[in-house]
Amino acid sequence: MRYIALLRGINVGGNTMIKMAELKASFETLGLGNVVSYVNSGNLAFDVPRESALQKPAVQKPARSKGTYEAETALISVIEKAIEKAFAKSIPVMIREQTDILRIIEANPFAGQFESHKEMHVLFLNDNVTKEANAFLAENVPPPERFAVHGREIYCHLPMGVADSYLGRGVFEKKLKIAVTARNWRTVEKLAVL
Questions:
Q1: Which residues contact 133 (CB under 8 A, 6 or more apart)?
Q2: How far apart are CA 120 and CA 54, in angstroms?
Q3: CATH of domain 2-100
């Protein structure tokens, strides 16, 4: 089974610097195979061998544990502990099956409505967005920014760019009290083929 790990906030500030080669090696020490990284911001694809203790039986329907799939929850725990041990940093990790990235691309509610990948972002969460958080977004996101919630992802169309946007100001985590990590559309598309 191939998965994508999305680390939140690494290599964007002085105290969260991790060399991708070292991060990749830490994944390999866990027995994860074919580990590939993309850009320097915490995107890794990896295989979990079928015989691995990390590989739970394939689950056709979501077996939810606080909003995440059972296998993803197990991987998150192991990877976050390994990162903390190897780098002395507590880094939130979001996990998706690589095939789920294709679903995310196909479900983009703003497809064909943006001119550049810089306008389009996806926020990845480990838990489903609550009704309260969804309502908060609907009431507080200023136009022309647009957001669409789909389970554990929030699609963000930011025609004016990310720097001064609601997303760029980091409001999501503070106001919604949830860990998220954002990727621009080019990165999301690349994750599907890593």
A1: 149, 176, 178
A2: 33
A3: 3.30.70.1280
| Domains 2-100 and 102-191 agree in fold | yes
Q: Looking at the domain covering 102-191, what would its CATH class be?
A: alpha beta
Instruction: Name 136's Cβ contacts closer than 8 Å, sequence gap at least 6.
Output: 175, 176
Which residues touch 125 (CB under 8 Å, ≥6 apart)? 67, 94, 152, 153, 154, 178, 179, 180
For residue range 102-155, what is the model confidence (pLDDT) as tens digits? 999 999 999 999 988 889 999 999 988 888 888 888 888 889 999 999 999 999
The structural domains of the chain, with segments of one domain joined by +, span 2-100, 102-191
SS3 call for 73: helix
Cα–Cα dist 77/55, whole Å: 13
CA 135 to chain centroid, in Å, comes to 22
* Overall pTM surpassing 0.90 (yes/no): no
Report, as an integer, the average pLDDT of 171-182.
79
